[in-house]
Write a structure and sequence with these properties.
The chain has about 650 residues and is α/β, with parallel strands linked by helices. Among the domains are: about 200 residues, Vaccinia Virus protein VP39 (Rossmann fold), CATH 3.40.50; about 110 residues. About 40% of the residues lie in helices and about 20% in strands. The protein contains 24 helices and 20 strands. Strands 10, 11, 12, 13, 14, 15, 16, 17 and 20 form a 9-stranded mixed β-sheet that branches. Strands 5-4-3-6-7-8-9 form a 7-stranded mixed β-sheet. Strand 15 and strand 16 form a beta hairpin. It is elongated. The relative contact order is 0.10. The chain binds S-adenosyl-L-homocysteine. S-adenosyl-L-homocysteine binds next to strand 2, helix 4 and strand 4.
Length: about 650
């Protein structure tokens, strides 16, 4: 017998039978329902205590004895149809469904509806229907009911509920003038017009809030009233709410993603733990349930390839070593969330016997002239030392600048130095010419070298053009990311599926933002233009909390306070939804009204590796039309800074215009 089964038996004996409750059908039902499944994870050990427990939305799961007592007072028969008001955790609904034919249950908090529905579905209850709405109005479409039970205390017995009782039906409701103290009333409908009322004693329930209950200004309206709803109310209705990342079930998100080949996961800052954790959770599900074979991230190719070798079991974990990821901004990858994620990837790959199906880890960025040059030369030394010699001379053109490549751009522009374009292109061409010969040895190593040579070619152009026009170098960088992604897709096979982790400003469609007016595009736009509905773009956002960021390029990492969002921003609207965490789908027809109302351009915040709260409006907000940027948006009202693996950051000199995104 499991620990919980044991506890359940004890609960039935000491909390119920000992108090005189002897209805065998009810005790049997209580024994059949795993109460621990309905209790928040952190409280699971108290599941069988003789008390109510807190659940999301400041509500409670009722004390077990009360659930048993009320169920017994309903005098249920197996063929009964039961209406419950106040689904809460869904626990009482499950107990009712063990005894009666069909249970209909209504809850006013969407977050509770979503989680109860999921738990009940997971436990296999097919005779329970959960609805979001005001239960004081009953459920006229499903009436009449043989029994109605209200799990919250109201000021009076609502007439609408009495009218939805079948003749002979029983209604149980806590009634009291005090918000938290009530008498449990049982109403029995004896004929069309006659009702009998009994008082079953004192109880304490959370308040019943609604048209025929207590008033509450934040009470939400049913979906049919969407037109007159405020935007935050609409978002509330259209979203999937969740208490914590651990509790979130991804089934619906995975349905929305469907057969997409590419899933692009954004972030509103490079230093917030929730964004990393959520992306890891989604990516794991995509790998396990949808056959994704690669994760492509906003890191340099050679750094990411160290992780790739680790997760394939070829090398140790680079995040725990000093060299890779030692350049500013170290915390972006060398943090605890990424470490846990890479360990998961390694463990996953260990279970997969064929190397082609193992998950790969790829870097899309191009700030690694020096290590990429080293990698290409190192590769050529092993496969073709003569070509290595030629390549070394050619790359010699760039080597004086590898520690400060921006200087290369400046000096070439002033024509004090020759451009190295021809040299770096020549190395890449040499490599490609001998592709067949080289790849015969070890395809993975050849691919790695080829990508590094490609990176060097693009980085040379990136730095060379940096000083003519800023948009040009931004575009060079995002074009490089897109080309790298294309190479990875081609390498992993024509149908391969890849997850992409980059900042919102890279993965959201640039055409929906003011970047586009500056002539800038990004990988999000390029992906959408090529893959259309085959790519699913998810943006992330937050209102306040802490973030890991530096004040200036190359500066030390600081834990900074994220300012509450600007009044004209999307973030402010999401904050006004008054829900901690949620997913807002923007592509499905169900959300059409919400999407349309969100289309008008507003400010959107982007925090990079730099965060300057003192000039926030100028340095971190831009105009965008959010539903055009993303197919879905994930909100964490409050976020916390990532925990870096090491604190010291080596100084660097590169700059990613404008704010380190
Ligand atoms: N049966 C629940 C206990 C829920 S507590 C369980 O087993 O966990 C009461 C619930 O009633 C709360 O979740 C509260 O949000 C909900 N509630 C209050 N007023 C409501 C109304 N008018 N319509 C629907 N649900 C309501």
């Amino acid at each position: 017998m499991s620990r919980f089964e044991d506890l359940r038996k004890q609960m039935i004996e000491y909390q119920m039978a000992a108090r005189g409750l002897s209805d065998q059908a009810v005790l049997g039902a209580i024994n059949a329902v795993p109460r621990e499944a309905f209790v928040p994870t952190e409280l699971v050990e108290f599941s069988y205590n003789d008390s109510p427990l807190p659940i999301a939305a400041s509500q409670t799961i009722s004390q077990p004895y009360i659930v048993a007592l009320m169920t017994a007072a309903l005098e249920l028969k197996p063929e009964d149809r039961v209406l419950e008001i106040g689904t809460g955790s869904g626990y009482a609904a499950a107990v009712l469904a063990e005894i009666s034919e069909q249970v209909f249950t209504v809850e006013r908090h969407k977050i509770l509806v979503d989680s109860a529905r999921q738990i009940l579905e997971d436990l296999g209850y097919s005779n329970i229907e959960v609805r979001h709405g005001d239960g004081t109005l009953g459920w006229p479409q499903r009436a009449p009911f043989d029994a109605i039970v209200v799990a919250a205390g109201g000021p009076k017995v609502p007439d609408t509920l009495k009218q939805q009782l079948a003749i002979g039906g029983r209604l149980l409701i806590p009634v009291g003038e005090d918000l938290r103290r009530q008498k449990l009333i049982r109403v029995r409908r004896v004929s069309e017009r006659e009702y009998l009322e009994e008082d079953l004693g004192s109880v304490r329930f959370v308040p019943l809030i609604g048209a025929a209950g207590w008033a509450d200004e934040s009470a939400s309206a049913p979906a049919s009233e969407q037109i007159s709803m405020t935007l935050p109310e609409l978002i509330y209705e259209s979203s999937e709410h969740f208490a914590s990342i651990d509790h979130l079930k991804l089934d619906r998100l995975l349905e929305r993603i469907g057969d997409s080949r590419l899933v692009l996961l954004g972030e509103a800052s490079h230093g917030s733990a929730e964004f990393y954790e959520m992306r890891a959770k989604i990516t794991q599900a995509l790998i396990e349930k949808k056959g994704f074979v690669g994760v492509a991230v906003e890191a340099d190719w050679p750094d990411a390839s160290h992780i790739d070798r680790y997760i394939r079991g070829i090398a140790s974990n680079p995040l725990l070593e000093s060299k890779p990821f030692s350049r500013f901004p170290t915390w972006m990858w060398a943090n605890h969330c990424v470490l846990a994620f890479t360990r998961w990837l390694k463990a996953h790959n260990e279970q997969i016997s064929s190397p082609e199906r193992r998950v790969g880890f790829y870097g899309l960025d191009l700030y690694s002239l020096d290590s990429s040059i080293e990698a290409v030369l190192g590769y050529l030394e092993t496969v073709d030392p003569e070509t290595a010699q030629v390549a070394r001379e050619r790359y010699g053109c760039l080597t004086p600048w590898t520690h400060d490549p921006a200087l290369y751009g400046k000096i070439v522009m002033t024509q004090q130095y020759r451009a190295c374009e021809d040299d770096v292109v020549a190395v890449l061409l040499d490599l490609l010419k001998k592709r067949l010969q080289y790849a015969q040895g070890d395809g993975d190593s050849f691919f790695d070298a080829q990508q590094n040579a490609h990176l060097i070619k693009n980085a040379e152009r990136y730095y060379r053009t940096m000083y003519y026009a800023e948009n040009n170098s931004w575009n060079q960088r995002d074009r490089h990311m897109f080309e790298t992604l294309q190479s990875v897709l081609a390498y992993r096979g024509t149908q391969s599926k890849i997850v992409i982790w980059e900042h919102n400003s890279h993965i959201g469609d640039a055409r929906a933002t003011e970047m586009s007016a500056r002539g800038e595009y990004n990988i999000g736009q390029l992906v959408r233009q090529k893959y259309g509905e085959q790519a699913y773009h998810i943006g992330f956002g937050t209102d306040h909390g802490t973030v890991a960021a530096a004040s200036e390029w190359g500066g030390p990492m600081e834990i900074k306070q994220v300012q509450p969002s600007h009044i004209d921003s999307y973030e402010r609207i999401f904050h006004d939804v008054h829900s901690d965490n949620f997913l807002l789908p923007l592509r499905t027809p169900m959300q059409e009204i919400t999407r349309t109302r969100l289309l008008d351009e507003r400010l959107e915040r982007a925090i990079g590796v730099l965060y300057r709260p003192e000039s926030e409006l100028l340095s971190h907000y831009f105009y965008a039309s959010l539903p055009r940027q993303f197919d879905e948006y994930i909100w964490f009202d409050e976020t916390r800074a990532v925990k870096p693996l090491t604190t010291p950051s080596t100084r660097g000199t590169l700059d990613t215009f404008p704010f380190g995104l």
